[in-house]
Amino acid sequence: MSSLTPTSILLGLGIILLLGIMWIYLLLKQRQKFKQLIDFAIEGMVISHKGCVVEINAQALKIFGGTDKQEILGKSMFDFIAPESKALVQEQSTKRHTEMYECMLLRKNGTIFPALVRGSNVEGFGKSMRVSAIIDLSELKEAQYALQALNGNLEMQVQAQIEKNRQQEMMLFQQSRHAQMGEMISMIAHQWRQPLNVLSLLAQNIVFKYKLHKLDDPVMDEFKEDSMRQILQMSKTIDDFRDFFKPDKSIKIFDVKQQLAHAVEMVKPIVAGHGIELSFQAEDGLKVESFPNEFGQSIINILNNAKDVLLESCGDHSKQIVVEAKRGDNSEVIVSIEDNGGGIDTIVMPYIFEPYFSTKGAKHGTGLGLYMTKIIVEEHMHGRISVVNTTTGARFQIVLQGLI
Ligand SMILES: Nc1ncnc2c1ncn2[C@@H]1O[C@H](COP(=O)(O)OP(=O)(O)OP(=O)(O)O)[C@@H](O)[C@H]1O
Ligand SMILES: [Mg+2]
User: Fold this and answer.
1) Are 86 and 106 in contact (CB under 8 A)?
2) Ligand 1 pocket, 321 CB below 6 A?
3) What pLDDT, on a 0 to 100 scale, did the predictor assign at position 3?
4) In this structure, which residue's CA is closest to atom 29 in ligand 1?
5) Ligand 1 binding pocket includes 303 (Cβ within 6 Å)
6) Ligand 1 lined by 371 (C-beta under 6 Å)
7) Which residue, 100, 138, 172, 271, could crosslink 276 as a Cys pair with Cβ 3.0–4.6 Å?
């Protein structure tokens, strides 16, 4: 039968004390490890018990603007939550684990900042604690706002640049139209030459008959009819030119052969006056849905260039311009304008579609003809324009999407 001797009691107490010391030691060790672990975290970590802060890592201290942990330990978690987010955090803290959520927190100096928070209940050191991970979003938000402002600003700058380009293009169009007006007047003058000659002959004739006392009703009627025919012809020429050079208001389906024939008719009297042969052939039924007048004006620009180069070219070879239109693959319409004026100098070839590029001198060329032609063909009509030198001259080609 055993009995409790003082020695065994002391031994028992000693063992209990030792176990207690070991338990405390392990607890402290565990706590130290835990502290090391949370200090190592990139996010801010706050440990609370019954709503009071019991531990905080260095990152969280920095986030809340503290320098010493002691300023924060023991305080209520809610001291660090902005009024507008208190209800939200309260609701979230009733959950064992929360998803990340955004809320507004309070720094030590009273400033409010946006943060991303996640909370979780853990059992440790014999009591239930709440671990909250915190990421300060203020820098990110600032960057986001700055980026938004920059984007808005950039958009405004892009819009301003687009507007500037549009204005510039309009100005170039205007200049090019002025140059075309000059061309138009010289074309009208050529077209009028013949009816003016006829009118002058009619006038001389009527004076002659008057002097011979042969003016009677039938002669006067005939004179009136003949003169009116010429005058109407001249008036029609003006209308034709005005219609042809009128800016297109909208897209239309037009016949390529017909529009090319108009352009050729307008230029023909001028080139013929210089001994240049202008021939034209086109397939029937080539339809395009686009801007007919702009197309016609582009053709006139190319024809005028061919005329200019042929006027300059020496030699007694026959000077020719050939205009052709045919159907290509995939219902494309191919228009080509070829001259035998010697071609384009290879040095200037890369620049001929640039605005204000001209080899004719400021007096004779604005250098906008081919630039406008390219804008019309490629941007307005969504086609392609190209040029190659042939053995005798230059060949311009315009490819447009035709209607089947
Ligand atoms: N058929 C061609 N043969 C040789 N050179 C050409 C031909 N077409 C154009 N060029 C060259 O391209 C340049 C640019 O032509 P563009 O029509 O843009 O201007 P321009 O004819 O000089 O002036 P503008 O058309 O404004 O009166 C011409 O100056 C010329 O050097
Ligand atoms: Mg030109």
Assistant:
1) no
2) no
3) 67
4) 358
5) no
6) yes
7) 271
CA dist 371 → 86, 290, 368, 379 (Å): 67, 19, 5, 11
Least confident residue range of 172-181, 221-230, 353-362: 172-181
Q: Which CATH architecture has domain 41-136?
A: 2-Layer Sandwich (3.30)
What angle separates helix 292-312 from helix 217-245, to the nearest 10 degrees? 100
- Bridge-based pairing of strands 276-282 and 319-327 is parallel
Instruction: Return the ligand number nearest the Cα of 355.
Output: 1
Which CATH number applies to 250-404?
3.30.565.10
**Of 240, 353, 246, residue with least CA distance to 291:** 246
Indicate if ligand 1 lies below 6 Å from the C-beta of 401: no
Domain ranges of the chain: 41-136, 142-246, 250-404
- Which of 345, 358, 363 best tests ligand 1's pocket when mutated (most atoms within 8 Å of CB)? 358
Give the amino acid at 239.
Answer: D
Residue-wise pLDDT for 126-177, tens only, equals 678 899 999 999 989 899 989 999 998 999 999 999 999 889 888 888 888 7
In 3D, which of 403, 220, 379 has the Cα closest to residue 298? 379
Q: What is the pTM of this model?
A: 0.63
Ligand 1 within 6 A of CB of 396: no
Tell me how long the chain is.
404
CATH topology of domain 142-246: Helix Hairpins (1.10.287)
